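Instructor's aside before we start: the two examples that follow are unrelated to each other. I chose them only because their records fit on one page, so don't look for a connection. First example below.
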Amino acid sequence: MPFSLLFLATIISLSDSTAWKIISFEKVKSNEITFNEAGLRIEVEESASPLLYLFPERKQVRNLRVTGRVSGGWKFAAGDSWKDGPDDALLRFGLIENGTKRLNALERIAAPDWIKELESRASTTADGIGRIHCFHVMPGRQWIGETRKNPNVSIFEETISAAPEDDGRFELSVVLDTPMETVGLWLLADGDDSEASFIVEIENIEIGLAP
């Protein structure tokens, strides 16, 4: 059955740069990002910088589908296990969950700039900072299905959900057990820890909403 018939589908624009906000990490080189009619192109050169897409109102997300292609040196050394490898991913596609917590004065002093920017931009829709549920495209197909809480940033709940084919093409398709109250999307291709260089071309993003 086609994706669009399973749930009410929303197509996310990949050509409108004004719909996305590029966030930078301190002391980390930023990716080269291009928006065009063919899709979204992210060029990684030992770099990392997330993209933020906020919904105008909260949405009850039930499933998602992302298609695209990876090229270049995407088969970076990943270690014998997820724990042993660098904290990089070909693609992290995150659903930003509505939360109840906001940074207090002391937390705001210590928090990295990207956390403060995320909270500020999401404040008109979100009650507070929730978890970011990330579904990864990784080189290691044997890891698909593994989950963890990110050891460096606890708000990230991560699942390896897909791996590219030999030609670099991938399809990230996820159906959630229950709908998630979502305020936006978090998108990141990163190769800074592994000093990797590759290109991710995202052709399509579809979000399925619960009726």
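Example two begins here.
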Amino acid sequence: MNIKTKALVLNLICFGFLFVLIKTIIGTLIPMSYIPLIAFSALLASVFSPKFLVEKGKLFIKIPLIKEPREL
């Protein structure tokens, strides 16, 4: 598997996991309609999910609230 493909798959898996987790937690704690729940969950998941980057053939991870990316 190409390194760029690995980064894309890891980004999608992390976002999807956080999206489902946040949607479940917010949905159980706060009763709200479906569309605002999905929008708010997607916003929070995109902010707090780790980002995987490829630079010079190496895979890096950018963790939320930490300034510099780290090499994997």
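DSSP finds two helices and three strands in the chain.
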